[in-house]
Design a protein that fits this description.
The protein is α+β, with helices and mostly antiparallel strands and 109 residues long. The chain has a single domain, classed as Glutaredoxin. Helices cover 26% and strands 17% of the residues. It has 2 helices and 4 strands; from the N terminus they run E-H-E-E-E-H. The protein has a 4-stranded mixed sheet with strand order 2-1-3-4, covered by helices on one side. A hairpin with a 3-residue loop joins strand 3 and strand 4. The model has no long low-confidence stretch (mean pLDDT 95). It binds FE2/S2 (inorganic) cluster. FE2/S2 (inorganic) cluster binds next to loops.
Amino acid sequence: MEKRPIPFKKIILVCTNSREAGERVCCAGQDSIALHAELKAWVAMNGLKRHVRICKSGCMDRCEEGPNALVMPDNLWISGLDRAALEVVKAQLAEEFNVQEPKSIGGGA
Ligand code: FES
């Protein structure tokens, strides 16, 4: 085993766990797969891939509060991730990494 420094300044884990209907609620059933994809695309579009890694995670056992995300190294837990919350996350990333005029998937700001 070789220990190395973490190669990203920030890692955001978005739970995309999926379950069958009738089982415990899951984040995938609350749109987390699309939210993860949108955030990942936004990071790439704004040139942050070298700094920010957007990952899928398995269940983090807070399913009823989902979709859930974990932001490291901030030690920030996000529950109820939705489109509005995603915009807040993007705005915070843009500010933190000094993205001038952030691009959005629709082509605007
Ligand atoms: S399915 Fe996402 S926290 Fe359990």
